[in-house]
Amino acid sequence: MMNIDEHRKALLENIRRIVIKVGSAVLTTAEGLNPDAINRLAKQISSLNDQGIDVALVSSGAVAAGRQRIRERTEKNGKDYTNLPSRQAASAVGQVRLMHDYDEAFAKYGKITAQVLLTRSGLKSRERFLNARNTMERLFEWGVIPIINENDTVAVHELEFGDNDTLGAMCLGLTGADLFVNLTSADGVYDGNPDTNPGAKPLPVIENIGALDIESICDGKTTVGSGGMYSKLRASRRAAQLGVPTIIVSGKGEFDILRTLDGENQGTLVLPEEHRVSSKKFWLAYHDNPSGSILVDAGAANALLTKGTSLLPIGISSVNGCFARGALVFIKTLDGDELGVGLSNYSSTELDKVKGKRSDELGSILGPNPFDEAIHRDNMLLDAAI
Questions:
Q1: 366 lies in a domain?
Q2: Based on the domain organization, do 302 and 270 belong to the same domain?
């Protein structure tokens, strides 16, 4: 039986495409962008690229870089930079600075970079998602390093993805990557918050991320970034569902991605799930925030979990929220436990009318209708990491 180091090396030896996410806490200091961190990152990614490994970099730092740039040029040091318009404006300023620094750093190693700005609403359309994926494929064919960030200046709802950990996980399906590397300010994942619990122990490997009580071990966030360890573990769980392993490792000091890929025990390795979900199911579950909830009875819950069935109206007990046909909704038990998410074939108003009804009764209630199922099993992901 392989030990942890052997298992790690075996899992990582055939990696051909990586999404690397780097957070603000790694890239910035109190003075703004850290050129040493950017140059170190460019050197290591270029080395990976020279070995035939495609790399997409999901980079934070634009808002922090923009705030610092504004402070350097104006007298607005005492102003509030935390509201949404200010954050978006700061991102517009900082994105230029960030890409300039990346482009210069990668050019030292003969690499070309491309800026890719995404929004969740932009990926909501399956056609746009596939177009974006085709663009990424062409960039990889050309040997270009895509540098991805959220298009903060047009995003709404407090920057739509919420954090770049979420964006990084979404990019796994977009790029077809087989490894997710999350560079953070911590050395890895601990069994508690080391800032408040000096006895917290590092976790070199997480074998079953779905069974991990994330909330109990994550009670704090970094002060510079927006995600904290909670969002990193949630993103790792999403990656695991897609069959992609995650390495959460420090991006500060003398980190070395190449040594990590060679099996060196750095940071925390989150193992993928044995039964991966399809790229389409992954996309439909995480492309949008759920608009409401459907509560199902015990019989329907059991059928969904053990038999892989579709959700029929007869198994629905109640409907919460107001949503249209095709909306992403939670599927919950009567006790409020989340079973998963899915795309509803009917609006909330229609479901209120047909809940608890047999399929042969739907026509007399709604008129001619094309669906026997409230949510088809092909448009459903159970145990989703929302």
A1: yes
A2: no
Residue 228 pLDDT greater than 90, yes or no: no
Residue 284 belongs to a domain = no
Query: pTM of this prediction?
Result: 0.85
Counted residue by residue, the chain has a size of: 386
* Same domain, residue pair 105 and 251: yes
Distances from the Cα of 154 to the Cα of 30, 59, 92, 160, angstroms: 27, 18, 10, 10
Closest alpha carbon to 86 in 158, 177, 151, 138:
158
pLDDT (tens digit, 9 = 90+) per residue, 298-332?
A: 999 999 999 989 999 999 999 999 999 999 999 99
The CATH number of residue 40's host domain is 3.40.1160.10
Token pair of 216 as six digits: 């109990």
Distance between CA atoms of residues 92 and 83, nearest Å = 14
113: which residues sit within 8 A by CB, 6+ positions away? 99, 102, 103, 106, 144, 145, 146, 147
Of 73, 71, 75, the residue nearest 28 (C-alpha): 71
Can you state the angle between helices 228-241 and 279-286, rounded to 10 degrees? 150
- Higher confidence at residue 314 or residue 260? 314
**H/E element, 7:** helix 4-12
Q: Single out the residue in 257, 279, 301 at which a domain terminates.
A: 279
Rounded CA gap, 352 and 318, in Å?
7
Is the Cβ–Cβ distance between 61 and 27 less than 8 Å? yes
Q: What is the mean pLDDT of the chain?
A: 85
Which tens digits make up the pLDDT trace of 79-114? 566 677 777 788 888 888 899 999 999 999 999 999
User: Which domain does 147 fall in, by range?
Assistant: 4-279
